[in-house]
Task: inverse folding
C-alpha cells in the first residue's frame, strides 16, 4: 500500500506549550503539549511516528509517555489504541520522566506522522504533524494533586479497616447499592479507613476522570471515610500476542500511583516483581505512597517469587515498598459454602470428603481424579478438584514462613470466607496470624476482606462485623 504526506498548514498549533511537572512539589519530569496539524482528529493507533528532542538532544521513547484524554500510554502501545480518539481541538502531551528542564527557553522539536484515510487503489495519505519551536517554560504543575480536603491520619497500633471489595455481590448486582451505600455501611460499623479497588469502582480505570475521583472523595467526606489503600492492577495479560514489557508495567504502576495520590491514599496494592523494586523505591518515595505486592493464593511464603521479592526488599531497605500478605494464602480447610455448592451440583459427600482427606495427605491431583472417576464422580466432584487443587487449595498454614516475612509487611489483607455463629473462622487460623503480627509490635492496618460472596452468599452486612469482632477479641482491642 503506497501513501503520500500532506501538510495541512496548522503546524503552528503542533507544539502548544511546555512545563516542568512536580509530585508533592518536587521535580518529577516535564511535559510538552501537542496539537493536531489537520482539520479533524485521529485514532491514537494512527500515530505512525512520534519522537521528541529538546535543545537538539533526542529523548528515548522508553522515557516518555503519551497523554491523551487523561490516559498515559507507553509509546510502544500506541499502535493498539484503536478506540482512543484524539480530537482536533484537544491537547495531548508527551510526559518525560525523571528529568526536569532548566528555567528559560528551550528548542523543542517534535517528529510526528499521522496515518489517515485510505483513498482506494492501494493509496492512503498521512498528515505531517511535526513541529519545531523555541518556547519559554510555563509555570510548573503538580502531576497528580490530591482532590480531597481531609488530611491523612496517623495509624496508632494495629487499626482496623474494611475493603470495599467485601460488598462486591450487592455492588455488582444491585443498581441501588453503590459507593455511597458501601461508605454508609462501613461508617455504621465505626470504621473510617477503607481500601478502594480501582478496577471495580471507576468506569475509566486505569485513568479515572477527575470528576469520578472527586465524586468518591465527596462521599468519603460525607461519611467520614479515608481512602487508606488503593487497589491497582497491572494487567500483564492485556497484550495477547506477546509478553508485557518492563516499560509498560512501570507505566501502569505510575498511572495507578497518580490515582492513589489524587485519592489521598497512604498505601497502594499492586502486583510487581523483584526486578522492579529498585525502580519502584524512588517512584513510591516521590509520591509518598507505600507500594506493596500482594502475596495471594496460590503463591505462598515459600514460592520462588516471594523469596526473590523478600531478597530484593532486604537489599532496598526502604519503607516505601513491601508486602501485603492475603490471609487466603493460609487456608487450612475448604469453605463450608463451597462444599454445599458442590453437593447442590450433584457431588456425593463421601467423595468430597475423600478429596479433602487426599488434599491433606498430599496426594497428587491426577491420582485423586482417577480415583474419583473410578468411583463414579461427576461434574460436582470435578469442580471441587479444580478448586481445591487450584485457586482455593488448602494445606497446613505455613506460619513459620509467615513470621519470617513480617519485617517486610506494610499492611495485611485479613481475608475470610465466613465467620461462624460462635465467632470463629473454620478455614483460616486467624488467631495464629493476628497473634504473630501483634507479637512484632506492628503499627499499621489489618484490612477486613470478605470473599464469601463468591459462593453466592449475600451476607457481607452480617459477616464483616463478625470479622471485626473476631479481630478485637484476638488483639485485645475494645469495641468501637
Result:
Amino acid at each position: 500500500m503506497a501513501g503520500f504526506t500532506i501538510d495541512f498548514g496548522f503546524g503552528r498549533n503542533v507544539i502548544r506549550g511546555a512545563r516542568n511537572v512536580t509530585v508533592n512539589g518536587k521535580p518529577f519530569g516535564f511535559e510538552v503539549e501537542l496539537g493536531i496539524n489537520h482539520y479533524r482528529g485521529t485514532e491514537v493507533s494512527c500515530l505512525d511516528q512520534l519522537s521528541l528532542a529538546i535543545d537538539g538532544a533526542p529523548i528515548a521513547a522508553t522515557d516518555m509517555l503519551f497523554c491523551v484524554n487523561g490516559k498515559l500510554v507507553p509509546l510502544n502501545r500506541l499502535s493498539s489504541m484503536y478506540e482512543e480518539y484524539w480530537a482536533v481541538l484537544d491537547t495531548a502531551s508527551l510526559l518525560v520522566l525523571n528529568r526536569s528542564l532548566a528555567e528559560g527557553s528551550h528548542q523543542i522539536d517534535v517528529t510526528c506522522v499521522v496515518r489517515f484515510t485510505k483513498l482506494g487503489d492501494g493509496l492512503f495519505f498521512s498528515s505531517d504533524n511535526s513541529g519545531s519551536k523555541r518556547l519559554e517554560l510555563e509555570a510548573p504543575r503538580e502531576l497528580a494533586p490530591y482532590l480531597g480536603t481531609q488530611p491523612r491520619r496517623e495509624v496508632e497500633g494495629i487499626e482496623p479497616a474494611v475493603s470495599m471489595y467485601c460488598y462486591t455481590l450487592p455492588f455488582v448486582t444491585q443498581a441501588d447499592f453503590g459507593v455511597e451505600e458501601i461508605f454508609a455501611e462501613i461508617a455504621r460499623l465505626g470504621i473510617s479507613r477503607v481500601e478502594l479497588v480501582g478496577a471495580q469502582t471507576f468506569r475509566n480505570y486505569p485513568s479515572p476522570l477527575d470528576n469520578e475521583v472527586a465524586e468518591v472523595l465527596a462521599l468519603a467526606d460525607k461519611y467520614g471515610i479515608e481512602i487508606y489503600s488503593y487497589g491497582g492492577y497491572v494487567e500483564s495479560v492485556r497484550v495477547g500476542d506477546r509478553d508485557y514489557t518492563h516499560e509498560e508495567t512501570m507505566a501502569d504502576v505510575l498511572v495507578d500511583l497518580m490515582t492513589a495520590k489524587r485519592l489521598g491514599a497512604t498505601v497502594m496494592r499492586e502486583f510487581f516483581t523483584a526486578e522492579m523494586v529498585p525502580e519502584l523505591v524512588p517512584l513510591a518515595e516521590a509520591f509518598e505512597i507505600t507500594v506493596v505486592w500482594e502475596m495471594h493464593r496460590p503463591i505462598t511464603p515459600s514460592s520462588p517469587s516471594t523469596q526473590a521479592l523478600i531478597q530484593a526488599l532486604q537489599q532496598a531497605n526502604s519503607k516505601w515498598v513491601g508486602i501485603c500478605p492475603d490471609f487466603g494464602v493460609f487456608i487450612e480447610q475448604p469453605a463450608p459454602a463451597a462444599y454445599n455448592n458442590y453437593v447442590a451440583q450433584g457431588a456425593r459427600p463421601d467423595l468430597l470428603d475423600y478429596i479433602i482427606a487426599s488434599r491433606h495427605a498430599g496426594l497428587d491431583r491426577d491420582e485423586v481424579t482417577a480415583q474419583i472417576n473410578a468411583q463414579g464422580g461427576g461434574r460436582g466432584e470435578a469442580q471441587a478438584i479444580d478448586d481445591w487443587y487450584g485457586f482455593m487449595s488448602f494445606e497446613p498454614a505455613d506460619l513459620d514462613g509467615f513470621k519470617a516475612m513480617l519485617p517486610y509487611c506494610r499492611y495485611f489483607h485479613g481475608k475470610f470466607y465466613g465467620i461462624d455463629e460462635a465467632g470463629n473462622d473454620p478455614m483460616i487460623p486467624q488467631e495464629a496470624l493476628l497473634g504473630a503480627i501483634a507479637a512484632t509490635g506492628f503499627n499499621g492496618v489489618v484490612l477486613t476482606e470478605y470473599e464469601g460472596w463468591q459462593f453466592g452468599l449475600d451476607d457481607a452486612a452480617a459477616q464483616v462485623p463478625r470479622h471485626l469482632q473476631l479481630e478485637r477479641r484476638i488483639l485485645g482491642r475494645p469495641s468501637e
In short: Residues 336-388 form one domain. The chain has three domains: 2-142, 158-332+396-475, 336-388.
